[in-house]
Each structure stands twice: as structure tokens, then as C-alpha cells.
Amino acid sequence: MNQGQPVARRSASVNLLLSNQESLYRYLHGFAGGEQYSDDAFQSVAEKLLNHPEKNCESPGYLFRSARNSTIDALRAQATRARYESAYAITVGSVENRSPEQIVDAEQALQQLQAALEELPLLTREIFLLFHVHGIPQRHIADKFELHLSTVEKRLAKAKSHCFQRIRDLL
Question: Do residues 132 and 155 make contact, with C-beta atoms less than 8 angstroms apart?
């Protein structure tokens, strides 16, 4: 292979990303209020463009909007994690007031729920966790996995039903 020749021709969208890299970083840094989310959003957009070269985008508006949406998703996920961590801290704090039977019942229900989630097909499990744990809207999940919104809704319904069936005897 000649060292001077590129391995593959870059798509117009990758060229757009590279030509707007600095301004996109500045925009994301200002929008997200920090380097962590701007780096993650940039990487997410770059990955999307590299993994889907058929999405030959030539509009800077699309590029900036995609990066903004990725940042919003990351910020929303962080807020959801913070809520769950707070709820967990409250729950752990109230364990002292529970009877040993209640603690055992709660642990069994949690184990059953974890087992139920592991039984789900990988894509269904990912959709369930993105929606219920990370707070990502169904439309964004559908876009991320290139699915119809109704497919995401059906997989969520099946996952909920499956999990409920597995823990209902413990409730």
C-alpha cells in the first residue's frame, strides 16, 4: 500500500465534521458548560458519521444540531443517575427501620428483576435501560438504533411485562 494515498475516500459529512471541528468544540463547550460533555458529544457525532456513511450530510446545521442533541442526552442521563443515586441513598438510609423479612423480600425482588433484565434480548434490554434508567426519549432511542418508534414502544411493553411477570409473586 502506498503511504501517500488515503485508505478510503471520506464522505462529505466527515469532511464537514473535520472542517468544523474547532467551532463545533467551542459551541459544545459553551452549550454544555464543560469539556466532558463537549468531548463526548463530538465523539458521538463523529461515530455516527463514520458508522453511517450513507448519511451524507453537507449542512453545518445538521452537524451542530446532532451534537447538541447528543449533549442534551448526556446531561439528561447524568440528571437521571443523580436522581437514582439520591433515591438509593434515601432507601439505604431507611433500611434500619425495616424488618429482616422486608429486607430479604426487597433483596429477592431486586435479584428477580436483575435476572429478568438479563433474560431479555440485548437490544430490548438496552432500550429498556436507556428509557427507564437514563431517561432518553423513545424517539431518540428509535433514531439511535434506526428503528421505528412503534418498534421501540413494543419492545418496552414486552420488557415491562416480562419484568413484572418475574417479580409479581414477590410483590
Answer: no
Task: Give the tens place of pLDDT for each residue, 63-72.
Answer: 888 888 888 8
In this prediction the pTM is: 0.47
User: How do the residues of the chain divide into helix, strand and coil, expressed in percent and rounded to 5?
Assistant: 80, 0, 20
Does an H or E element contain 142, and which? helix 138-145
Distance CA 130, CA 77 (A): 9
Q: Which of 140, 150, 159 is nearest to 77 (CA)?
A: 140
pLDDT digits (tens, 9 = 90+) for 29-82: 888 777 777 777 788 878 877 777 666 567 788 888 888 888 888 788 777 777
In which band, very low, low, confident or very high, does the pLDDT at 145 lie, cut at 50, 70 and 90?
Answer: very high
Q: Which residues of 137-149 are buried (b: 16+ CB within 10 A; e: fewer)?
A: ebebbbebeebee
Distance CA 167, CA 148 (A): 29
From CA 36, how far away is CA 27, in angstroms rounded? 13
Task: Indicate the burial class of 46 (C-beta count within 10 angstroms; 0-12, 13-18, 19 or more).
Answer: middle
